[in-house]
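Appendix B. Raw example, untouched.
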Amino acid sequence: QVQLVESGGGLVQAGGSLRLSCAASGRTFSSYRMGWFRQAPGKEREFVAAISWSGGNTYYQDSVKGRFTISRDNAKNMVYLQMNSLKPEDTAVYYCARAGSWGGSYYSSMTYDYWGQGTQVTVSS
């Protein structure tokens, strides 16, 4: 069915930028909400950002507001996370996820039914 593959992670200095990409395979990509989550070692997976199916509405964790931007290109079956002004505390594995069609909160991992393998983001000080 649906497959999600993240890319774009890596090592960056504090204050730098990275753009994560998520390539989706499967039909009706444009009909689903998409989100980004992250998980640091020993920590619970947490919400980062989400975007509505049309891209008209976006949602962010408070700590990344003004620094991260989620976007999507439905024609290309892609969702992105532009990360600027990166901080060491942003270090984590970042996951792309697709929300189920039945609804639910953008902020909850339980809303999402497909997940990518994750991409490591490491921010050095």
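End of appendix B.
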